[in-house]
Amino acid sequence: MPASAAMRRLGVLFTLVLTLTLAFTLLASAPADAAKTRRERKVAHGVRVAKNQIGDPYRYGAAGPNAFDCSGLTMFSYGKAGLYLPRSSDAQARYAHRIKRRNMQRGDLMFFYSGGGNVYHVGIYMGRYPNGRRKILHASYSGRPVQRDPVWTNKWYPGTLRRR
What we know:
The chain is built from 3 helices and 6 strands. It has helices at 2-52, 70-80, 89-95; strands at residues 97-98, 109-113, 119-128, 134-138, 147-150, 156-160. A 6-stranded antiparallel β-sheet has the order 1-6-2-3-4-5.
């Protein structure tokens, strides 16, 4: 009998330690998960703001609310969602957290670069077309309004505002 009583106590002790470990793990990760969710909600809000700008004219150096250049659109949209972005596409590329293409999600940024490696354009990743081509929402050039387009080159890399 004493052996089985000791085994029961050991089982209770093991259950208690396991429960406390799980509770501390959940409590420790809750603030990080909440922050991640909050940033993801802000990114989603920024995408909605950008979508509302579809059809607005392109104007070099413009940052809204009625006309945009590429970095002005991203700065304006994410700014309205409570996320900071610097003004130029090159500065935005340095500011955003660089990620792998396979990890991209809707709302991440796409930075286009020239042969010399300089970033000349930025847009918002919107997912893929049914044919698999990536979609971008951007203000591309004079005479063309803010709109969605398929990606036209492979000289780009992604960045995200989900992590900072």
